[in-house]
Structure formats: C-alpha cells, structure tokens
Amino acid sequence: MDLPAIEELHFEDAPAVDSPPGPESRRLVRRQAEIESGAVLYPTDVPIAFENGKGATLKDVDGNLYLDFFAGIGVLNVGHANPYVTEAAVEQAERLPHTLDFPTRTRVELIETLDEIAPEGLRGRNRVNFGGPTGSDAVEATIKLAKRVTGNDGLIAFRGSFHGETSGAYSLTADTKYKRHYTPLLPEVEHARYPYPFRQDGSPEELVERALEDVQTLLGDRYGGMANPAGVWVEPIQGEGGTVVPPEGFLSGLRDLCDEYEVPLIVDEIQTGMGRTGEWWASEHYDVTPDIMPMAKALGSGFPLSGTMYDENLDAWGPGGHTGTFRGFNPAMRASIRAIEYTRHHDLLAHARELGAFIVDRLAECEAENPHVGEVRGKGLFVGLELVTDDGEPAPDLLETVRTTCYENGVLVWAGGRGDNVIRLLPPLVMTEAQAETGISILIDAIESATD
After folding, report:
1. Which chain positions lie within coiled-coil regions (predicted)?
2. What's the CA gap between 21 and 65, in Å, rounded?
C-alpha cells in the first residue's frame, strides 16, 4: 500500500457542527452513566459519543465533525485510522494476533526498528522489554528494573509529575487529588522540585539550581532522608502537570548527578515519545540519554502496546524477570512499525516542529493581548496554554468555559495543570497547517469571548 499524504487522511469538511452534543450523543452518554463505572472521566466534560475518526478529525454519532487537538492524549500521532497502519494491523490480527514472548518476524522487526530511532547513546546498545499494554505497566517495569540493578529501594520523582495509576506508578505520581485515597503506597519515595518558571520565583538558572540541589541532597547527603536510592524518574516535559518545559540545564544536570551517584536516570517518554515534540524522544532536545526509558501511548498507534528500553549493561533480568500476558500482541507491534515508517516517510518530526511553532506563535499573539493568557509553552506538538485570573491565579472555571465553547464550535481540546487551568494541545502529527489555523482561531475566539 502507498503511504497516503497527510492531506488525504481527514474528514475534509471538519469542523462542521450543529449544536453539539446531539440527541444520540446525549442518549449514549446518559446510558453509559447508568451502566459503567463512576470512574469515567472524559464524557463528564465533553459529553460527546464518537463514531468515526480520520486523521486529525472525528465524527460523532450525530454526524458532527471535529478537529481533534488531543489525539487520545498523544496516542494517535499518525492520526485516527491511518490506513497504512490499520491495513497491516488487520492483516496481522487475521494471521497471528497473540504469541506471548515467542519470537515472530513482527516482534523482531519492531525491536530492530526501535533501535534505529533510539536516543543516540542507546542506539546499538539497548535491550527492549514488552510487559503489560499500558504506560503504567511500563513504569512498573522501570521500578522493578532499577531496584533489581541497584539492590536499592528509594525512588526519586518530582512535584507536578504523572507516571500512571498502578500502585508503583502512583507512588511516583505527585498528584494527591486521587491517590490520597489509596495510601500507603510504596515506601521510600521522595518528590523533588521541578523547575516551573511561570509559577516559581527566580531566574531559570536559579530554578534549575534549586531543583538539582534537592536531588543531590536526596542522593548524597547523609541527612538527606534517603538511605538507598534506586533511581531518578523524570518527565522531560511534564504533561498532566501542565506541559511544563524545564529550562536548559535541568535534564543534563540530572544526568550528571545520576552518573556521579551511580543510579539510573529513568526518563518517562510515554507522552512525549514517538515524535510528539519534534524529535523521536523529548530527551533528545537536551542531548541527554536515559539509562531506562518507558514507552507507550503512540508506540502502538492506537493499539495497546507499551515497552521499556534500557542500556544493555542493565539487563539484570533472567527468564520471567518481568512478564505480562499481552507482551506478544502482534497487531500492535505491526502497527508500531508502520507508524514509524509513515512518520519517517513524511518527515513528521520536522512537520511537528514547524506546525508547533506556528501554533505557539498564533497563541503568543493572544497572550500579548489578553491578560488571562498567562503563558504559552511547549515543544513540537506538545503545547500548553495557561489561563489565569485577573490577579494571576489559576483559572479552572475559565478553562471549562473555553473548552465547552471550543467543542460547541467543532474543536476538541483537553485540560491539565496543577490548577486544572492549562489547555493542552496534542494534535496528531498529521494535522495540516490549514486545520491548525482554523482550530487555533476558534480557540482564541473562545478565550476572547470568555474574558470580555
């Protein structure tokens, strides 16, 4: 199959809506609420039921068409139902869907392909593990591996972090809103400061210095409170914490500290990987090579798949050292190979950088004119817009109004941030500039109408 151009992937008339949510969406949302768990999140804020997706567009059950600016929270980097990906996944599903960890040509090809796009310091010298199908599973694997390699049990993460919601991953996650109901979690977990220039006093250099001092105290100070550190877990750009881009020197400083104290640096690329930020891995923006790197979300291009890549010198597991029933889901592996091929063929890394710069520039115009836009930040197509009140405090109510106005006009955006006040933009990397211009104009109009 030929690789279709990105312009050919979408519902061409999007956005086109008529007073959403429509009657069938309302019926299905109501029925879901009657029979499904109360943990359901997304329809409580965007009460829409979807039927089809193409590229960077979605169709709901009432026929409304939307521009998608969150792509399943960074899952669908090459778009919804990309035919080059789905063709191969369907063929694999019809032939051989599940093989545990027995070798298949698909499995070996994916591992070899991942090596080709690995961070430079891991290229040609890594091992890959497939466990459970979600990002939380991959993070759990990193915890086990770091403990196994070092023989220690102390975990260092950062304020504002999100690493998943299984018990170990939740222990690393900093958000107490939900996890306070499930303590105690893992012991010996400490959270250091993460440099957040918009919300912290001091120059970027000072913020980096303070954050690194926190980590150094935990790693090396006899009275720092952590006797046996096993590793440092960090998002190269915080996602759920509000698309917080750390200043230069932070990630490289962590690399130096981990080398000095001989503990692994675990860089969580679950949201930021597979080209999302304009490089295959966000750590590449900072010329930093992780020792251990969990991968998920866009890795399977819409099919459940997670993995962990790590330096071959850390391969301390023997047979059965880390397993998972669906570690041999071949359709997802085939989809991953095709998604990487599609990304390379269309140079979507460069496209993500260019389109992301376009989006940030357009939103910066709004920031310059509207005091309720506190900051626009991001790398590639990993963009955040922080909304604030008149006195600069987080404005979650404003965000809710803006998000509702956006979907009512055919644009889907999502939220994040420590104050639930950051609009997160994670569109598929196949979004066109014309689509971005239309969607961002609708977003800007929504902000302006909500703040007049």
Report:
1. none
2. 11
